[in-house]
Every structure is written in structure tokens, then in C-alpha cells.
Fold these 4 entries.
Entry 1:
Amino acid sequence: MKKNKNVAIIVAHPDDETLWTGGILLSNPEWKCFIVSLCRKNDIDRAPKFYKTLKKYNANGMMGDLDDGPEQKPIDVKEIENLILELLPPLTFDLIITHNIHGEYTRHLRHEEVGRAIINLWNNNNTLTKQLWCFAYEDGNRNYFPKPLINADFSFVLPNEIWQQKYEIITQVYGFRKDSWEAKVTPIEEAFLQFNSPEIAIEFINNSD
């Protein structure tokens, strides 16, 4: 991989950046990373933990405060797009990493909405990024913990020491108990769909609708 990449990680919640791509970030400390969490800016527990996590990745970042209520009411995609543009620095990134439009497990609407918003933004402004990776996991409709999609474009099995650092961020920085869903699911294999142009990403959306 190219060193010194400008990389943006755009996720719905603080901890998503670690669960789904933390190993890649820890394995590439030379990347210049900007991490955006679109929810929980005013969460007095989770927000400080997110900013502590940024230090683990030697990254900068910002948070938004999208509605994240348990009822998961849909949010207009334009509202999400506008918030992303508000929080991101005005750069052309070498790579953006974000959610799959199908999410990573059954089911969190915010994950799906964020993935779709990023692709829409890229299609409307093709200078946003040179390449897009989307997390590639599924959970068999809650029949098992999320695992890499069979049709993922690529995946990485993390060295044990990298996985252990990632697990410690989940359990020690974010403070999830070892018997929590988050701790149990922390993937040792990280998988992605890769899009090299906004046209291909939009085609992916159209074929999924």
C-alpha cells in the first residue's frame, strides 16, 4: 500500500472505526487519518472515549450529533451528506473507508444510511476521494457474529499483536465488558468492498435497490 496516504474513516458511531477497520489503521501508522463519527457528539461517556481512541491511531477527527435513538427513525440522506461535508476537512482523500450500504450486521439503519450518503457525495463530487472501501461483513440475519462477506474484494487476517491492540481499544478505552457483544465480535479478519470510481459505486447501489 502507498505510504503517507490521506485517509478518511467515516462511521456512524464511536467504536465503529475500531471494530471494522481498527487493525488496518494500526498496521498503517504512516497514514494521515481523519476519523469522523456522525453520532454521539454530546454523549458524555462515549465522546471522550472516541477522542482518546484517536490518539491510539495518531489521527485527527470530529464528531456529529445525528439522532441515534433506539427507534432508528430514518434520516434524510441530504442531512447526512451535509453533516459529512461540515465535519470533513476540504481535502481530496486518497482513500475513504466507511459502512456498507447493507450494514455489517442485522440491522442498524444509521450504518446503511452513512454508506449510501458517502457514495452519493462521491458521485456528485468526484474529487472527494480517489478510492472507496466499504466494510464487508454479514451476520446471517443474526444467526452468528459478523464475518467477512464471501464476495469481499479483499480481507486481512490481523497479526495477533495488532488484534490485541484493537481488542484493548474496545475493552479498555471504550470500556466494553469482555462478555459484551462488542468485545465478542471484534473481528480478527477485516474485509472490504473496493470501489475505484463513483460510477462503479453508484452501480452497486442501483443493483442493490
Entry 2:
Amino acid sequence: MLRIHLHRLRRNLAAGVRVALLRRVHRLDFRISVGQLVLVAIVAMIGAGLVDIAVARGAVRFNADGIAGQARDVAILVTLCWLVAAALRAPGAALGLPLVFLAAGLLPDVVFAGVVAALGRALPDGSRWLLTPLWWAFLGWSLIVAWRSVGIVLQGERRLRSLARAGAVAAVFGGTLAIAYLYPSARLWEQPADDAALEGETANLPRVESEEVLAVQPRILYEALTALEEREPGNQNTYFVGFAGDAKQDVFRNDMEAAQDVVDERLKTEGRSLVLINNPRTVLDTPLATLTNLRAALSTVGRLIDPEEDLVVVYLSSHGTSDHQLYVNFPPLQLQQVTPTSLARAFQESGIKWKVVIVSACYSGGYVEPLKDANTVVMTSARSDRTSFGCEVGREFTYFGQAFFQEALKTTDSLTAAFDLARAAIARREKDEGLTPSEPQIFVGDAIRAKLERRAKPTTLALR
């Protein structure tokens, strides 16, 4: 039985290749069944994994969450094909359409992965924009394959006209493409921190679960909180709280330490700034970045400030997930993730009124809606459905951290002006490197804009 299934799978894949190569194919060249649809979907998943590896440009590791994402995409394709078959009154196409779509789309995926892998490694970073036309060319090829697939599956259907065929292609191809764009699934292969290299570099550093660290951390947090200076009467004071969530890469620690230095200088927060960092190099001198410590920091700042006058700037930097969780990680500790809801609750409990919240992470745009109000500025490094860049192995700083804090904020005391400068710089860099634009987001509440514009002085924070 297995031999029969494999023989039929080879036949389906061979027919799919002929479809992609624009050769003559008949519907009877395919062997259509539920079992074959499952097998072809598995092969298509492997093809998607090859694309992930090709675009990663470096070491990758398997991501189990990607299996659920691929299964979701196949389920969406099958559902759309079923709806098209029902609309055209062609029940036999309900299985045939997704099977042929997947079999015929495999070759473009594999070729695209190979070309991107070859050119991506050959081209310098500044020339990766040349891959963008290539992506559009392969998208056009896939559209032609989709057009042929519909025609092949519906051969012999007299009622099929060009308009109906175009509608079927638009519904299936356009529908799956739109959903994948708006609600991207996790990749099967992702570019991780180099765990082995990290372990080698930190072998002689204290381990976070060691008695030495566990004993000293409560004191470090207490000293950091009590060292925060009280507000200076008669002025609008600014406080800064930083949070670097992932211990596996130095890039987030680098971002946070550099950001604190710049903010202390430009926004006059020296003595009123505090950072929480997960990193083996800082466990004996800096409080850990945990949700509990973040709440404690915000609560302490809330008690020190005049809630009607003072401003609090909070910067969070880490990896982010597609469901908008900020990654908090320091193995072997089991740490709570920071979500938009938990962060909003922490602000509410702290009593902080006027605040600027800056979130640098993939999919960080998902923090805007839960946090925005009239008294708040929210800035994010990416749209809610887009990744940001610069957190892979070997980077010293994230794209957003470098552009916003180390470049833009050094030229202006206005956070929104700095954001505009950083957003433009990031867009140029992503275009040069052929990356999907991250599209950093900003929300400025009416009350905080009016308050800070009215009180703006050359030596204090100004919002445009």
C-alpha cells in the first residue's frame, strides 16, 4: 500500500512540475485523493522550509511552531478551494484544486530558494535590493501556475469561462497570499542566537541559577530602586526605565546600555534612570529583566514622580512573537512573557500618567492599541504583522535601537522628531538590503502632545 501511495505521489509531483514548466498536462495525469493531498502538502511544507533557510542568511534552527503555521495555511487553501468548487458547482474540484496548486507551486518555491540562497550570499548587504525584482518575477510565475492549475482541474466544465476562471484564481491565489501577508505564520526554520557560541563565551561567567546570583539579585534590585533620585521641584522631570528581555544575545544588552547613556545625556535623566537586563555578563551588577522587576521599577518611579507634571520613558527591547509577546528569556529560569495587557496593567498599577513607551521587537506594533491613550506616546520598531531587524547573531545593535537612540536622538531632544528621523533611516537601510519594510509605528496622544508642546524648553523634552 505504501508503495502505491509513493508511486502516486511521484506522479502528482511530476505532473506539478510540468504545470510549472508550462508543458501540456491533463487532469487525468494527477491522482486525486485525500491521502495524496496530505502527502503533497507535506512535500510543499518541505519546500517552504527550504525558502525559510534560503532567506535566513546564516545558521538556522527548526521551529516547531512553524508546523502549525504551515498546517493553517494548507487548511486555508483547502477551504478557499472548497468554496470556489461550490460556487462553480464543480464538487470534484474541492480536492483537485488544492492538490494541483500545491504540486505545481513546489517548483517555483524550490527554484526561488536556490536562487536567493546563491545570490543572497554573493551580494553585499548594500546590494540586496536587487533581490526585490527577483521576488516579483517569481510571484508572477506563481500566478501563471495558479491560472494553469485552475484550468487543468476544471477541464471539461462547460460553464467555466475566462471570467469564472479569473475569479477562481483571484479567490484561491489572492486569498491565500493576502492572508499570509496580513497574518504571517511562524517560519519552519528561523535564525536563532548561536547557543553553542554563547555557551563558550560565557562558560566562566556566573550562572543565573547559581547561589551567588540568587543571593545578590534582591540586593541589586533594592539598590537600583533606592538609588533613583527624587524629582527636582519646579521642573518637569523625566525618568527612564529600560528592559532588555533576552539573555541569549548581547545585542539587547548593548541596545539598552547605549540607550540609557543617550537618554541620560539628552533628556537629563541621569540619576533618574534604571535598566533591567537579562545577560550573563550583568547578573552580578544589574537587576534581571523580569515582569515582576518591571512592575517594581514602574511602581517605584510612580511614587517618586509628580503624576501631573513628570514624564516617564520606558524602552523594551527583545525578540517578539506574532501574537505580540515580548520574549523574556534566561534559561533555565521560567520567566513570564511581557504582553501588551500585562504592560498596560503594570502602568495602571504604578499610577504613571504621562509616559512614552518604546517597544523594539518583531510584531511590536501590536502594543499600540492596548497602550494608547490621551496621555501616552507609543513607538514601535515594526508593524503588528511585520518583523524588525538587527537581532540576529553577530549584530552589535538592532536597526531600531541604533537608528533611534544612537543616531536620531543625538541630534534632537524631541522624541517624535527622533522617531521620524529613525523611521526614514531604517526604511532606507531595509530598501538597500532588500528586506520587507518593518514600518515602525507611532501614536501620540492629544493631551501629552499639547502638554509637552506648551511646556517645551530648550533644555527639556519637546514633542513636535
Entry 3:
Amino acid sequence: MAALVGAISPIIAVDRKALTPLYAQIYAAYRARILAGELQAGQQIPSTRELAAELGISRIPVLDAYAQLLAEGYFESRVGSGTFVSGSLPGGLDGIESGRATAPTAQSGPRRVAARAIAIPPYERPPWIAHRGAFNLSQPALDAFPFRVWSNLVARYSRGLQVGALQYGPPMGLDELREAVAGYLRTARGVHCEAQQIMIVSGSQQAIDLSARVLLDPGDAVWLEEPGYWLIQNTLKAAQCRLVPVPVDDEGLDVAAGMRLCRKARAVYVAPSHEYPLGVTMSASRRLQLLAWAQSCGAWIIEDDYDSEYRYESMPVSSLQGLDRESRVIYIGTFSKVLFPSLRLGYIAIPPDLVNRFTTVRNATDICPSHLHQAVLAEFIREGHFARHLRRMRRLYAERRHALVQSIQTEVGEALEIIGAEAGMHLCAIMRKERGSGHRDVELAVKAALHKLSLWPLSPCYLGRRKRQGFILGFGNTSADEVPAAVRRLANLLRP
């Protein structure tokens, strides 16, 4: 029996001018709602007095309708509690699943959806995501997050809450946070921007979607790193763009190969500081080559700087946007990796001449970001907590990354080749000997989930037919003490 949800009045209309008596109209309306599953077994029904007052009619027809529904078994009365939808529905309801939408019939007519809705694969949670274990990807060290500091800032915000905070905010985001982000990007990432160019968004995924809506038309060619980030692939497929996979080598995106494949592409998506999934850093010569190509072809560069704060063998590499003199780069970053994923806050540094267009499109989609987390995060940055947290996390991730590299070399060095371990929160482990089918890494990832390992397979990140086998291993959420045992479980899975 469904849990009681209170006597909420369903929408029932009566027509006093109709030939059908009022009691019969009320009876028919309730019966139809029950048969359709809109009123569930055990759900409380308003009293006859409440319904009569709501409909503005005499109580008598309501009493008559309720009596008929009770007699036929659609309603049941409980002494001292009221009237409820019956828990044992009559035989006429055989086959109806209470509370569930019914499947459309053949007579329901065409049920068309937009082409962009079917351009991407159906949403599924693969086992390596559903079962969170060691090496889970894109998960920061939440156990090391400064909960007390954050909670105090939230409490302070709540105590001083102003009416203005309850109103719709500006589409570009809260001014205080935009100022804080702009200052951070200029200092730490070498980004050329002012607060007026910063738009606050709900993570890098929304930033990519907004960029596609503003810059790209259906059919436009877009370069993508090969292999690349699967969610970006889906976003651009939904925008009905033509995806051009451009190979990545140890210098990053191969610009010359991109020009051979499609010189007149409209845009390129690139993560130059820490390519996903291989983790390589784009060389200075490639960066300059990419900027020259974009300027010559009038193309846009979408730079995703998703976890560039973490670099372990050198100082952080400056942004590609910082080299751009022609305002061709749309720079994107996120706080999901450096703070916590459910924060859902990211940012875009927009070229000045595009700010108005981005604002217009943002306002047409979700109006503005939520005020609470913006205000708290602005204080978190302004009071120095963000900088201190980054310094602590760099040390912690360096330790965890070292433990993972050492364990792989000790336990499975012959089976896996490590690449991209110099930065970020993940590394890529390429399988040296590809055994079995072309989906060996996927099969192993499914099995690994049963052993509390979250191994993201490498092969699904490729758009083309040539797919390397391997795993993307996150080390942000796996402590250094846990790593050796987890790698031994991985080694057991890799054995024939």
C-alpha cells in the first residue's frame, strides 16, 4: 500500500449547466483518476465538507458520489482517519500498475522527439560508475574537504540572508564571485580577463552546452581530441555537429592532422593543460599552431581547464587563453574537481564581444545560477580558504599519485604502461598486451566492479575504429594506504 501523502484535493471540475448530475460528475472524475493511476492505493481523499467548499456546491452531491465510490470499492473509510483510495481495487483494474504511467497505445498518434534527443546514446550508469570503489574517476578527496569552514560560511550566510538573495539573479552570476574568479584566473592560470567576462555556470558541462548554442550550427565540423571526453562528444552530438576526431600524441592535439582531416572546422574542443583521458600536456609549439589555425580560419577554440591546478613535477602550465591575442578562445573551468562535485559551479571566461550573446542564451535556458553556493564560494575564495585547500590537496594528491605509480610498476609493470601521471587527478594505464576481443578493457571493468574497483575503460573514449585498450585510474578518492591492495586486485584481474 502506498504511503499516505495527505488529503490533497485532486483537480476536479463540475459543470452546473451540464445534464449530468453533479454527484455523477464527481464520481466519474474520481473513478477516472483511480483507473489512470493518478490516485494511488492508500492515498487520502478530502472530506466531503472540504471538497464541497472547494467546488462551491452543496455537500449532498459530494456525499452521494462518495457513497457510490465506497459501494463499488474504489474508496474505503477508516474510522477516525477519513476516506482513502481502496487498497484492494476492484477487478476492473486488473493489469493496471498503480502510480505508474501507462504505455502509449497504437491509437495515441506519432510521438516524435527532437533529433538532438536521439543523437546521443541512451543514458546508462555502467558498473564502474554505479559501484564506487578504488580509482573512481573525477572524485576529489572529500574526506579532506574543510567541512567546518564551509559549514560556518553557510551558517553565516543564512543568518544574514537578505530579501535580494531570494530574487532572480543576473544571468552572468553573482558579482562578488565573478570578481573572485577573475582574480584567481589572472593570478594562477594566466588568463586575460576581467570580472565582466566571467559567467558562472553549473559546471563545465553546461559551459560546453552554452558554447555550442552560441557558436555552432547543426552540421558544423568540430575537432575533438581522439581519444576524448565522452560527455563532450555527447554534447556536440546533441548540437548536431559533425565530429572530427583528431589524434593526440605526446605533444597533445595534432594540429597538422586536424588541418588534413578538416581544415575549415568551425571550432575545436581541447584540454591543453591535461588532456582527457591520456593526460598529456599540449606543447608550446602546438598551442601557437592551434591559435594560428583558428585565426586564419575564423574558428573558435573551447579550452577546458578542468583540473589544471594539480601538477606534480613542475609548476602549473599557464592557460592557452593567456597566449590568445585575437579573442578566439572560450575558457572553461570548474570547481567540481577541486572542491566537491555536487557544488555544481563552474565558469566561462568569454571574449568581450561575445558576452552579450552568451548572456542572452543563458537567460533563455536557466535564467541564472543559484545564489546560495555562489555567495558562500565567493567568501571561501576571498578569505583565503580556497588557496589553502588547493595547497593541501596538491600535497595529498602527489602522495596518492606516487603510491599508485609505484604499486602499478611493482605489481603489474609488464602488463600496463603508465602515461599522463604528471598532472591532474587521474592517470592512464595502457594494456601492453591486448588479449581477447576488442572490448577487453570494458569486460575487465565490469568484472572489476565486483571487486570494489572503479576502472574506467579507455576504449569507449575513442570515436574512430582504432581503439587502444586500457584504464583511466582516478587517485583523488583513494588513500595512499588503500592503493597497494587495490592494485593487487587489479593485477589478479589482468592475469590470464
Entry 4:
Amino acid sequence: MTLRVLYVWDADYPWDVRTEKVCRALVSAGHRVVIAARNLRGSPRSEALEEGLVERLPAGPRPGRRIVSFPAFFNPLWLTHLAALVRRHRIDLVMVRDLPLAPTALLVARGRVPVVLDMAENYPAMIQDIWTDGRRGPFDLLVRNPRLVSLLERRTIGRMDHIITVVEESSERIIRLGVPRERTSVVSNTPSKTRVTGPPERREGEPLRVVYLGLMEKHRGIGCVLDAAALLHRTGVAYHLDVVGDGRDYSRFREYATELGLPAERVTFHGRLPHAEAIQVVTRAHVGLVPHEARESWNTTIPNKLFDYMAGGLAVVSSDAAPAARVIGETGAGLVFPSGDGSQLAEQIQKCLDLATWQQFGRAGQAAIRSRYNWEADTSVLLNVIDRLTGAAPQVDGRLSQPNRHTAGI
């Protein structure tokens, strides 16, 4: 049965890795996908891609474009755009990414078609991080207020036909908020099994290559990474740190590295790279870092990079943020350090200098990707949810069955 699915993404597209993966999975299953997107870049209103037909907001004049198209549930521009797409494309199911436009999706669906929330983030906790880190803007009291966002979430999630989360801890959080367990599924941020190639390789005596991949923001623990790098440098450890990504604290961290006396032969700031190039940097590394502070936000989500590192055969060194630490403990793919402790991070990185220990971590991570934490398994969960919500597959005991539901499905 071919379905017409509207995927609502609240930023410019392309590109977003999860949006592409979900939409490609739906197209590969024979469904037709329309991707609603913002249009800050002034791109064509419609664009046909392999993963679906992108239907963008009208760009409008450049001055004020960001404000006019802000993805708030009460924005009439988004409401009009989504309602028109539902009618024009005769949509059978709406998937909406994260909280900002979830109420809008419910309004345009009007109870006539199912609405699935693709909850990639604990949005209230993410907004709280902005305030905690001192990054609040002049309008955030209204549009990014943690209390208002939490209230909006509580009033929205109970009306969803189904909620897809990226990790078990996130599902448990919304279940505590009153969502029935049978209306949740985990579809995690995993790579395809094809990303696992040969066993990891490292020449005896070569410098240890350490990589961080992701946004450059305070709560992601980059300061702790640089503290650890400075300690390793002072003790004469042969290593090189690759930092891939940008973000609002990028300049601050580059300045901090200079203050710590880290020379260019020890650390390279690559900035933002195209996804394929970023993955190439990862594949050349030996150790992958997940240093995120163990706040509520990182205790209820899991980053793509954890599984990217594992697929590449890297040893993973993670903070004790709950989901990543649990996966590492279950799989044996690496080591865990106390969040924010640069000296402990440096100590765990040094343990990976031992070739046999490093190989053990890398092989365990790759084995876990092949057997459990892979996009093929997560795709099965995703399609099961879609089929059952639309009546394409039978109900079990009046509820959605979840035969492949597991921790990583991401």
C-alpha cells in the first residue's frame, strides 16, 4: 500500500541527516514523501530529491525573513503552508520533527490523518541549555522560554497518534509524562550495517588520532576535551586531536585552545565540513569522543556520532551522560569518564594507547553495529509504526505491536 507522507522539518532543507534517513526509508518502502521546510536561503519553492519532494515556505524579502518564517506553532505562515500541502498532496500521514511545529501539524491534520512526532530532542531541556549557558536572546522569554516550552510539550504529546524517540531514556521520560507505552517506539540515530568495513587498523608507534564530531557548544563538553588535550600535551603523549564542526561557541573554544598552549601539531579545528568529508576524518581516527555534559538534555538523547564512531571501529570515550554510557557499557565499545572532568578524560584516552585494548574496543563496537545498532533494524521499527497507524498491517490486541523495539531502535 503506497502512502503519501508529509514530513515537517522546521529548518532549511537540504540538509539534515535524520530527515534524509527517515524519508529515504519511506521512499524505499514504496511511499511518496513530501518534505515541508523553511526557506531562509531563498531556494526554489519546490525541489524533487531522491528522498522526497521538498516544498518550501515562500522566502519573502530578505530583511525580516528569519522572523517571518520562525517555526513557532502559532505562525500563520507555517499553518497555511502545511494545510495547503495536506490538501494538495492528499496526505495520508503527517510526521513532524520535534516540538516547535507539532501543534501546527495536529491542527492541519484535524484528526483526519495520523500524526507522528519524530522526537529527536528533549526540546524543553535543549531550550533550558540555552538559558543555562547564558545564550538567551531578547525574544527568548516568549519563543524559547523553558517553562512555556514544557507546558506546550505536556499539552501536545498526549494528542499524538504515536511518538518516535531516539533512545529508550527519551521514551521513558514521555511515558512518565503520561503517554501510553504502546504509543512510543525507538528509532535511533544509527548508521547502516554497510558502514562497517574491515577491522580497525593502527600502526604500532603512530600518534593516537582522537576526534570530536559535532556542534561547538558549551554543554557539549568541548572545554573539557581541550583541558584533556592540554594535559596529554604536557605529559608528552603522542596524539593529534581533530575537532570537526562549528557552532555558537566555536571562536571561544579556538581562543581557549590558544590560552592552553595547544600547538597546531596537537589540535586541528576543521570547522563545519560536508557530511561525507566529516565521516572521512572520523574513519582516519582511532578514538572518538562523546564528551557531552550529563545534563537532562544529554541524559535523554543520544548523538549520531556515537554510532558513527562504533561503525568505524574507533574506541569510544564518553562522558557519563546516561544513554551513551549505557550503550558503551552494554557493548564494550570503549570507556566512560565523569562529565566535565578533563583529567579523567585524559586518563581514559591514554588507556587507548595500548594496541590490544584499543583493538578490543573497536571490534566490540563494530560487532554491536552489525548485530543491533543499525539503520536496517531501526527502519523495520519505523515502517512497522507507519503501516499499523494507517491500517496497512493488522493490530495486535488492539495496540501497535513493536517486535523490533530495542534500546537504539537514531
